């Protein structure tokens, strides 16, 4: 497969087990000649089109890998990208002097992104930005073929009829196709903690601060024996029988003292509240 100047990685490496890059390029040109020839019959044209799809399928797989780990099976993304490949084959004009892979890549990627848009966005994006992204994808394919290179944001803005800032906003909206889970951590063994672990949480004890602060002066007003009973019961978790043995009174008497003391505290809290 021919290599365009916008693809990044050498797409020829994808054909390591198949034809050489030169052979693929030559075969592609031959098939496009058959496809565009007015003397070609319908059956031969369909065969040439199918072979072009098969010949350039590694480019689709290369584009689909850019969207891995977004929750969709790779096979589905390849199928969707193949739709973009077929559209590119049908629209491609070899006389413009642009390599087919350079022309087809934006269309394939645009088709995959449209699939994510139609399936649902991870973050709700305004319809205006969704439609702008479609315009950017279409204009990118057209300008790439006419210019022989990837268009600049200013060239896209002129073609779409908006500002450069809006073009950048439309491109960046693609980040909303997928989000990272708060509990997703680094996959490395010594990776950083997840974002969820770095977030604060409500301390349940905060709810009791006001009550504790209100009780302090009330507790100071109790006599020593009442304070000791409360301490043993609620801070040392002793039973009424254990408390009775500790202070030398009956369990019944401990029960009455606890009831009276707690009722006094409740009434005092209500009065102060």
Write the layout of secondary structure elements.
Layout lengths: L20 H16 L5 H14 L1 H8 L9 H18 L8 H20 L7 H21 L5 H8 L3 H9 L22 H4 L10 H12 L3 H11 L5 H8 L3 H22 L1
Annotation keywords:
273 residues, mainly alpha, Rna Polymerase Sigma Factor, Chain: A, Arc Repressor Mutant, subunit A, 13 helices, rod-shaped
What would you say about this model in short?
The chain is mostly helical and 273 residues long.
Class from secondary-structure proportions: mainly alpha
The count of domains is 2
The level-1 CATH class of the largest domain: Mainly Alpha
The CATH H-level homologous superfamily of the largest domain: RNA polymerase sigma factor, region 2, helix turn helix motif
Please give the share of residues in helix.
55-70%
Binned strand content: under 5%
Overall pLDDT confidence: 77
| CATH architecture assignment of the largest domain | Orthogonal Bundle
User: Helix segment count?
Assistant: 13
Largest sheet: number of strands, sense, barrel closure: none
Question: H/E series, N to C?
Answer: HHHHHHHHHHHHH
Write a structural description.
This protein is mainly alpha-helical and 273 residues long. It has two domains: 11-177, Orthogonal Bundle (Rna Polymerase Sigma Factor, Chain: A); 207-272, Orthogonal Bundle (Arc Repressor Mutant, subunit A). It is 63% helix and 0% strand. It is built from 13 helices and no strands. The protein has helices spanning 21-36, 42-55, 57-64, 74-91, 100-119, 127-147, 153-160, 164-172, 195-198, 209-220, 224-234, 240-247, 251-272. Helix 3 (57-64) packs across helix 5 (100-119) and helix 7 crosses helix 8. It is rod-shaped. The model is unreliable at 1-18 (pLDDT under 50).
